[in-house]
Every structure is written in C-alpha cells, then in structure tokens.
Amino acid sequence: MRFLITASVAVGFLTLALAHPVAEKRANSLPPVVSETDVSVLQLALYQEYLELALYTGGFENFTDEQYRAEGFPPGFRDNVGVIAQHEAIHAQTISAILTKAGYSPISPCTYHFPYNSPSSFVNLANMLTSVGIGAYLGGAALLTDSPALVTAASSIVTVEARHDTYLRTGIGAAPFPMPFDTALTAVFAFNLARLFVVQCPQQLPLPVLPRLTVEEPSPPPNLQKPAPPGTQLTFRYDPSEFFVNVDPNAALYIGFINLVTNVTYTQVTNCGTGCASIPVPEGATGVGYAVLTTFDGNAALTEDQLSQFGTLAGPAEVVVS
Fold first, then answer.
1. Cβ contact 269:255 at 8 Å
2. pLDDT tens string for the chain (322 positions)?
3. Which of 62, 173, 210, 244 has the fewest beta carbons closer than 10 A?
4. Closest by alpha carbon to 95, among 85, 84, 107, 86?
C-alpha cells in the first residue's frame, strides 16, 4: 500500500499550529521581506514545509503505536512523529504569515503521493525528505543577504529540522549524525527532489523541471534506497530523449556527486545500456548525497550552482550513503 495525501489531511495539524502560543508569538515579530529573492526563497521553503507536513501527518495517522513498536521502534515514537507534524505546521504557518504581512500570496498545499507501506519505510522516506529540506534551507539562507532577520528565522527552523532527522535516524538504528557537514541544495535541485512526490498543485513555483535521474540499484521495495557506503556500485536510469541539449551518443558522461556542504566529485560513468549509467559511490562520501548526470568532468570543476543552472542532463537523485 502506498499513500496519497491530500492537502485536507494535514489541515488538523495546521489548525493546531494556528492556535499554538509559539505561532502566535512569532506572528507578532515577523521578519521583513526586503527583496524578490526573499520571496522566492520563502515560497520554496513553504513548498517544502507543506510536503513534510503531509508526510509526517500520514506517518502519524496511518499507523498505530503498536505497529511502530512491532517493527522495533521505542514506545512513544508515533507520538513524536505527531509532534514533528505539529512543528511542520507551525513552520508553514509562520512562513505563510511572513509572506502575507509583506503583501505576497503564499502558495497553497499540493496533493502528494508517498511510497511507503509500513512504519519502517515511512521513517526511511522521512529521513530522505528531511535531508532535502535541510539542504534547501542551507542553500536558501545564502541568498538572504539583505535580510539578517530572515537568516535568523531560517536558521532557527533548520536546526529543528536537523533534530527531527536525528530522531528518525536513531529510530531506524542509523548513525544519528553521520557527517560533519550537511549538504546544501540550490533552489532548482531542492524543488526537483521535492516534486517527485507531488501529484498536482494549485500553482507551480517558477523553477525549471529537470529530467529525472533514478537510483535503480541498490533499491529494495518499496523503492526506498538502502544505505550505500563508498565503493558500492550505483546504477542510475534516465531518458536521453528528455535532455535539454543534444548529446553525442558516444560522448563521455559523468555523475557529479554533491556531498558535504557543496563539494562536487565527478566520476565517469560506465554505460550499462541506453539510459543506464553506473558508478561506485565516491570515497569520502557520507550521510546523504545528490547525484546529477552531466557531460562535464572534474577538469571543468563546475560548482553545484553552475550544475543547476546549465550543467545537468538529468537529476538530481538522492543517495543515502550512511
């Protein structure tokens, strides 16, 4: 069973957030929006918060405490999933209020489809999506140069998101803090990773949709990739007909692997057929990384920002390393 989550499912948690004293207090001290860049960053953050709100609401409502405990989670784990959903609702309400106060219309929630069918697969997926959310906040904060108050607000959210992720990772027996630096994501990459779970939206963000890159191996049911430590062979699938540019069929292709802040490691792929590429996980990779297919190699040394602007043929794909 996989779960289709509509916007209405999460309304209960959002309603609780509206009446929450923390949310009321924040509404009285909302930071100003001083540029269109601020608006873009906030709308993407709200897009991500709505996604996580729907995800955690489903993780709370679709399983009982007994089901969590039967899969080895400690007593009270489900209740804490509900607390995380409340946090996401407060985050969404706060960002929406910041935009509204500044005279902008916040985006609305979408309808989502999440590929989990058990408490364990839910938590694995939540770990992956929360990592994307953390990366989006880290990447967005760098753009808020004209608004120190917004940087502080975003930072106060991302630290809580990191605590959520630590709790989830501990629940599945993974290292609670697998790397010394989290990986930042550009707006384009964060949006394309989040939209994989979107069925439809009342409105779209003005960001480009990139051709999809999918991790095929290792990937057990229900399509939630298990950890792949350095040296593990990864197999990716993509559709060459979706490339934005013409690529010589004989041209060398590379995977740019983004990990630890914005570090990019380039590895030439082994061709495993049309629309199929394989590489080993780069040495030194840890935590969560993001793979993009490109024609650029390490000599070109494109940054993550350059990859998201013009260097990506397909991707990104999230890779859980540890």
1. yes
2. 555 665 555 555 555 554 455 555 555 578 889 899 999 999 999 999 999 999 999 999 999 999 999 999 999 999 999 999 999 999 999 999 999 999 999 999 999 999 999 999 999 999 999 999 999 999 998 888 778 889 999 999 999 999 999 999 998 888 898 889 999 999 999 999 999 999 999 988 999 999 999 998 876 545 466 788 899 999 999 999 999 999 998 999 999 999 988 899 999 999 999 999 999 999 999 999 999 999 999 999 899 999 999 999 999 999 999 8
3. 173
4. 107
Q: Structure pTM?
A: 0.90
Residue 295, Cβ density class (10 Å: 0-12 exposed, 13-18 middle, ≥19 buried): middle
Location of structure tokens 């607390």:
83
